[in-house]
Structure formats: C-alpha cells, structure tokens
Design brief:
Radius of gyration: 23 Å
Helix content: 25-40%
Low-confidence stretches: 1-27
Mean pLDDT: 90
Distance between the termini: 76 Å
Shape: globular
Largest sheet: 6 strands, parallel
Length: 459
C-alpha cells in the first residue's frame, strides 16, 4: 500500500514539475536585447548600512563566544561589522580602475538597510540622532537610528562623504534592502527574556536568540505595520540618496505575495533574486515543497507582467571559502556561461567580502573582485557593459535605458533599430546640471543609433 502511495506521489510531483516547465516556457517573455552580444554584468551586494554583527574588536573579544550558536550564517560572519569610510573608499577604488566598453567604470549596487534598532543608554542617545521607542530598564532603552545617524558604538566618521564620493564617481549605486533586517519586536522580546542577550545588545551585538527565523518580512507580521515601515524606510532612502530606489531585495530572501504587492504600490517593481526566494508558504527542502515554489514562481512571472524579476546567476563570495582562486575562476565561468545562454550576468557578492574586523578577510575580498574585473577587461570576448538593475530592467523591456551615474546621464540603445529615449528633467537635476544650462524645462528627447551608449555630462 505504501508503495502505491509513493508512486502516486511521484506522478503528481512529475506532473507539477512538467507543468511548471511548460509554464516557464510560456511565461518567459522575449527580451528586447540580445544579451549574448551585450555581455552585461551587474553586481548586487546585500547588507550595507546594517549595524551588525559587532561594532569593533573589543566587543568581538568580550562577546564572541556568547553569541547565539543556532545562527545559519557562515562562521566568517562572526567578524562582520558596519562599513567605514576606508572600506567604502577602497572598494570604490577597485571599481573605478576598471572600465566597460562604453568608458564607464564598473558599478556596485549596495543594497541598504536604512535603520538600526539599538539598545542605548537613556541619557545622550537622542543627542546623536536616536529616537526613543521603549525603555528596557532604568538605564537603557530601545532607540531607532536612521541613516546617516548611527548608534554610538557604530559611529563611523567620514562614512557619508565616502558614500557620496562613490556615487559621484559613478561606481556606487545604492538600492533597497530593508528597514532593520529582522523583526524588531522579536529582537526586543528575545533580549528582554535573556540576561546574556541583554548584556550583549547593550554592547552593540546584533545576533540574538532566535534570530535565524526572526525575518523582517515574516508572515506573522501585521500588514499595516509592514507598510508603515516600508514608507518610513523609503523616506530615509530618498533623503539619503536624493532619489527613490529602483530595485529591492528582501532581507534573508524571505518574502511573500503581500510584500511584492506593497513594493509595487510604492513603485518598486524590480525584484532581485526571485529564484532564491524563501517563500514562507513553501518552507522546507522536500521535493514537493520545491515543486510548489517552482510553480508559484512561474505563476508570479505570468500574472505580474509589470514586475521585473532578476535572477542572480553568478556568485562572488570569496571569504566563505579557503580557495579564493577557485571562487574567482568559478565566478568568471558563471559570467561567461550566462552570456552564452543569452542572459545578463548578475553577480551576488555580499558586504562581508569587503568589510570585516579581520583585515586579511577584507583584503581577500577586494583582491578577488579586482581579479574578476581585470580578467573581464582582458578577456577575448571584448569588454563588458557594467549595468545597474534599473538599466537592466529598462533594456530588457524596451531595449533602451537611461541612468544617472554621478554627474553623468548614461543613455543606451541595445535594440536593433534607431530609438528616441525620453529623459525627464529631474534626471538632469539629479546629475547636477545647472538650471541655466541649455536644457528644456520638460522631458528631453535623445535619438540614438542601435547598439550604442552615449554619456551626457559631467556637469
């Protein structure tokens, strides 16, 4: 009898997988660009702005062995910390030294966490930007900090100017990651219930009991609260970078349908790493759960034609292994495989590779990125095009794009015919064009031949 049920299950699973495959074929809209010829590369990097895991070496020595051990993060994350001006400047230095065939430098998309929930002394926190949310006891309270303001232990002098310098150089293109990267109430409850966790939190330690499943966008969270947090986070992003984000990646890759609806209502229709989605409704690694995820993902592509789902098909995570050379070689192989398959190469590379309390780890990460970029620059295929998510989405849909990179507006036509590209006046303002410049008060129309990129500026 059991054997019979097993066969029935396998038949149902095969049918679902087969249906998902057919649906995927039907749902894959033809791109307006021949990505094989375009040789596009996009770098997406998560966790920037996150005040964690530890603020400094002293805290690592004092609390490194008391942090929760159930966390699913690789061991190297035990030395993770908030970036400083040196880390950002060094990374930008690697990027600006390597150019694509349009003359523009390589560009990184740091996906930002824009706020911090910090356990701070009640006296003084508001003076450096904290907003009191609740008292923990007579001495400490929970405070919300919004970038560029930071908790006292995570103070990073010169960080904001370094970020802005990278943006002006055209190599730093921020996108949106989330508010805190965890459910703030679950963190508060866990810290209140555990004296060791409380002591660690008061010293700037981010990990807490149960953190591995305390997802910021967890299904238990109230939709109204999530919408309010999203609006607050987007306002912070807008103030910090003078524009709305163009794409989003959920913290911990965990989100559901309602999150995509919220993002879409706020204009966030470019969604990173759809294939990596940890859908709360289809948890677990069993074949049936994986099949349901495949069908759901394909259904999203079919139903939501206004959304652009970007897939990370390459990895550059050198500090999670001892063989950095092999990681670089694998990444280059994945990039070239993507090109041969008619896809843009979308490279996942987390902040941990470039920011760490161990200087040797940071050097390894920077060296790996430099090796990848140098190899692409010297490759026999010809120079690549370094794109942002915004450009990638526009090109895939229309074959044309425009993007503000520092004081420049980059215009591309990767279609097969001459096109007219409409550039809003606001783009010139963001790029710093003076008001007295000979630019129309309304949208500007630019005609561009097929297969070309033009750069307007700098101003």
């Amino acid at each position: 009898m059991r054997s019979r049920y097993r066969w029935i299950g396998l038949v149902l699973l095969g049918g679902m997988l087969g249906g998902g495959f057919v649906a995927a074929l039907l749902g894959n809209r033809a791109s307006a660009v021949d990505w094989t010829r375009a040789r596009a590369v996009v770098f997406e990097s998560d966790d920037w702005g996150l005040c964690g895991f530890l603020p400094d070496h002293d805290t690592l020595v004092a609390f490194g062995t008391t942090m929760p051990q159930e966390s699913r993060y690789p061991p190297v994350y035990g030395g993770s910390t908030l970036e400083d001006s040196t880390a950002v400047a060094d990374l930008c230095g690697v990027l600006v030294a390597h150019h694509g065939r349009d003359g523009m430098p390589a560009v990184l998309q740091p996906n930002y966490i824009v706020a911090a929930l910090a356990c701070e002394p009640l006296a003084g926190a508001e003076e450096y930007g904290g907003r009191l949310l609740a008292r923990l006891d007579q001495q400490y309270g929970w405070f919300r900090f919004e970038l560029p303001y930071l908790p006292r232990l995570y103070a990073r002098r010169g960080l904001l100017p370094a970020m802005r310098a990278g943006i002006q150089a055209g190599v730093w293109y921020p996108e949106f990651h989330g508010n805190y990267h965890y459910d703030p109430q679950r963190r508060r409850d866990a810290v209140a219930a555990d004296p060791i966790a409380r002591e660690a939190a008061c010293h700037g330690v981010l990990p807490f009991p149960g953190d591995s499943k305390a997802w910021e966008l967890g299904p238990w969270r109230d939709s109204a609260d999530l919408m309010q947090e999203l609006d607050a986070a987007l306002a912070v992003f807008d103030d910090l970078f003078a524009r709305r984000p163009a794409s989003v990646i959920a913290p911990d890759y965990t989100w559901g349908d309602r999150c995509e609806q919220m993002w879409s209502r706020r204009g966030l229709t470019v969604i990173q790493a759809k294939r990596e989605q940890r859908h709360p409704r289809y948890a677990g690694g069993r074949p049936l759960a994986r099949a349901r995820k495949l069908v759901a993902r394909t259904g999203d592509r079919l139903r939501h034609r206004g959304r652009v789902y970007l897939e990370r098909n390459c990895r550059l995570e050198p500090v999670q292994t001892l063989d950095t050379v092999a990681v670089v070689a694998d990444c280059l192989g994945q990039i070239r495989k993507a090109w041969r398959s008619g896809e843009p190469a979308v490279v996942e590379t987390h902040r941990i590779n470039y920011v760490h309390l161990d200087e040797a780890v940071r050097r390894d990460g920077l060296g790996a990125l430099a090796s990848v970029l140098a190899s692409l620059q010297q490759g026999t295929e010809g120079l690549p095009l370094y794109l942002t998510d915004s450009e990638l989405a526009q090109l895939d849909r229309r074959g044309t794009s425009w993007c503000v990179r520092g004081p420049r507006i980059v215009i591309r036509n990767l279609s097969r015919s001459r096109r007219v590209i409409v550039i809003p006046r606001a783009a010139f303002d963001l790029a710093g064009a003076p008001r007295e410049a000979d630019i129309a008060a309304g949208p500007v129309l630019v005609a561009i031949p097929p297969g070309q990129s033009h750069v307007l500026g700098p101003w």
